[in-house]
Amino acid sequence: MEKYYDILSDCTLCPRNCHADRRSGIHGYCGMDGTIRAARAALHMWEEPCISGKKGSGAVFFTGCGLRCCYCQNREIAIGDSGKEISVSRLSRIFLELEQKGAANINLVTGTHYVPQIVHALEMAKTDGLSIPVVYNSSGYEKKETVHMLDGLIDVYLPDLKYLDENLAQSFSHAPDYPVIAKQAIKEMVRQTGECIFGEDGYIKKGTIVRHLILPGHTRNSIQVLDYLHKTYGNTIYISIMNQYTPVWHQEKYPELNRRVTGREYEKVLNAALEIGIENGFFQEGETSKESFIPAFDYEGI
What CA–CA distance (Å, rounded) separates 143 from 129? Predict the structure, then answer.
């Protein structure tokens, strides 16, 4: 365990490799030092049906992010200072409290920069009786070595595959290496989980679901992503095609991001998914691109 904590002294947990001494209080690219900060721990109803269902997913929203996309819907906690400091033992208890509240699973949202602490907290919680699946909810911008640290503790991986176009990755996330890095990370995630397994109640017990958020004006990138995922993994994974992009603030440099995805754009991507042959997947219906779908980061459950 201590070897994992040592990484925080010269942090290379995420692909930014910023080498910050976070154990000494220096903030890394993620914006965080070595102390866990979280903004919400509550039943979350807005994930895929096999994750949230009617019970709700026990989502823990961590503060900070190593990717920091310019259009982030959770900017308040990804880039801002929102979040309450908690200990590893408190995080472990939060997991158990969410299970007691009836959560279908534990949902770790953007926890890359806290992986050593998460590993420790999960081991503690499992020793104390945690029995529901654990979901790792990620931007996809993960080092495969960091993902490997979670082997045996994560039941379900829920990564994004945002871009296969390195120019878009650079423009919107300052991460031209995103396509290569995310591909490697997802490969490791699928290696750990294998094919998706569901319980009789419809909830996922094990597997990898890859999300893709369609960006306005960039359906070509979306179709490339879906084609890659299907050709690489076939029906081993599930693919979630999302139209919930919400322009939460004005973009001067990228004016195409100042609107929602149109019905025509979403239909184009869904039709392409059918032509590609995707069978295991999710798509969104109704008015999902609303700010009301962004949770309140009010420290509930923390």
Answer: 30
What is the C-alpha to C-alpha distance for residues 142 and 191, in angstroms, rounded to an integer? 15
H-helix or E-strand spanning residue 238: strand 238-242
- Helical packing angle, 88-100 and 115-127, nearest 10°: 50
What does the alpha-carbon distance between residue 125 and residue 111 come to, in Å, rounded to a whole number?
17
pLDDT digits (tens, 9 = 90+) for 26-53: 999 999 999 999 999 999 999 999 999 9
Continuous segment of H or E residues that includes residue 136: strand 134-138
Say what the pLDDT of residue 286 is. Answer: 54
Q: Assign residue 299 a region (left: φ > 0; alpha: ψ between -120 and 50; beta: otherwise).
A: left
Other C-beta atoms within 10 Å of 191: how many?
A: 13
Which position has the token pair 């960006």?
A: 215
Q: 85-89: long-range contacts (C-beta < 8 A, 24 or more apart)? A: 85/35, 85/36, 85/37, 86/36, 86/37, 86/38, 86/302, 87/36, 88/36, 88/117, 88/120, 88/121, 88/124, 89/121, 89/124
∠ CA 204-209-211, nearest 5°, is 135
